[in-house]
Amino acid sequence: HTMNFRTTRARLATVAVTGAVAGALAVSAAPASASAGNGYVSGGGSFYDDFGDEGTLSTSSHSDSNATCFWQIILYAEGVKESNGTQFDQADIDGRFGANTKYATKQLQKAWGLTQDGVVGKNTFGAADDKWNASTKLGELEFRGAGSTSATKSKLRYHGSRFVFDVYRTSDGKYRIYHNGQWQYASYKNNSTCG
Torsion angle, CA of 140/161/152/34, rounded to 10 degrees? Predict the structure, then answer.
């Protein structure tokens, strides 16, 4: 499947303009992300704007966490190249944001037409939650239905260029990811899924 560059770029252009206006009005530094502040990748309301307000993932920010693990699963699903020239694979998903994850992130940023800084900020993470369009096979997130418990309230499927994976958004908005045979919260504060 191919990425919908037009939609992503149009949305990013809107974000850039909105950000510039907000930046012009701001006197002090931007406040910390609500999602990182509550400790989890999370959202509410529409699923298709959940990731644009997430905390920063990088070699120096939340670098050993389930949130990084979630991002690495996205890198794997997108089939980007890692630093040795091979595809980012299962063995690279360890929840640690090191040089290899930074390199793969730059490759995905390049494919998505974003600034290639290797940092997963609001624009990069936000580009990963476009609504899936089954007829055109474009976008990333698809709502798959309601789950049976508060921990599985909403089942979503991420459509990458290489493969798809499922995630859950709980009744309180926290994302749960599956890795190493278990479901865990996509936490910024610990690395229990991948580590």
Answer: -50
Rounded Cα–Cα distance for residues 191 and 180 (Å) = 12
Residue 44 falls inside a structural domain: yes
CA 2 to CA 26: how far, in whole Å? Answer: 37
Residue 42: domain span:
38-185
Q: pLDDT of 95-126, one tens digit each? A: 999 999 999 999 999 999 999 999 999 999 99
Q: Which residues contact 193 (CB under 8 A, 6 or more apart)?
A: 66, 69, 95, 177, 179, 180, 182, 184
Closest CA to 97 of 79, 126, 121, 78: 121
Q: What CATH number corresponds to the domain at position 139?
A: 1.10.101.10
pTM of the model: 0.81
Within a domain: 18:
no
Q: How many domains is the chain built from?
A: 1
